[in-house]
Amino acid sequence: MLHRFLLYSGLDPVSVIKLSPEEASEKVQGFIDSMSDRGLSIRSMNTSLAYMKQFFKVNGFKNGREIDVERYHQPSRYRKRAEYIPTSEEIWGMANASGRDDDLDRFASSQHRERGTAGQRHIQRR
Q1: At CB < 8 A and 24+ separation, what contacts does 17-23 make?
Q2: What is d(CA 50, CA 122) in angstroms, rounded to the nearest whole number?
Q3: Which of 17, 30, 48, 86 is an S-S bond match for 90, by CB 3.0 to 4.6 Å?
Q4: Which tens digits make up the pLDDT trace of 60-72?
Q5: Phi and psi at residue 20, in whole multiples of 5°?
Q6: Is 125 exposed, middle or buried (0-12, 13-18, 19+ CB in 10 A)?
């Protein structure tokens, strides 16, 4: 990760440590933002930021000289990929594959409740 940062900044490790906290903060923020532009996950960006902050802290950026970089907000139930919701046909297929009539009845009655036709007891099985 540090290697990628050095390639991004175009500096060697000694030059990076000699930067002022403001310059270092600007370079690290740009690096983290470039990770976002590449489509990396929020967790990856925040983990990389934690590694970078630790690197700078170990190399003298502490006691008022810390780097100031903004983290990306990660919601508690964050998913990078959208949730998949099966279609009615797929649910019928899963209920049929289970081989249990009560699964079919349970799914059929839930479909009737959703459509507002709970009074109709005719269930068409596929």
Answers
A1: 17/59, 17/60, 21/61, 21/65, 21/66, 21/67, 21/68
A2: 60
A3: 86
A4: 888 888 888 888 8
A5: -75, 160
A6: exposed
How far, in Å, CA of 78 to CA of 76, rounded?
6
Residue type at 95? A
Cα dihedral sign, 103-106-108-110: negative
User: Among residues of the chain, what percentage have pLDDT more than 70?
Assistant: 80
Torsion-angle region of residue 73: left (phi > 0), alpha (psi -120 to 50) or beta? Answer: beta
State how far the Cα of 95 lies from the Cα of 101, in Å rounded to an integer.
8
Higher-scoring residue by pLDDT: 23, 120: 23
> Can you give the pTM of this predicted structure?
0.57
Hey, what are 11's tokens?
A: 């500096």
- The pLDDT of 98-122, averaged and rounded, is 61
What is the residue whose two structure tokens read 């209920």?
95
Please, how many CA atoms are within 13 Å of residue 57, restricted to the half-sphere of its CB? Answer: 8
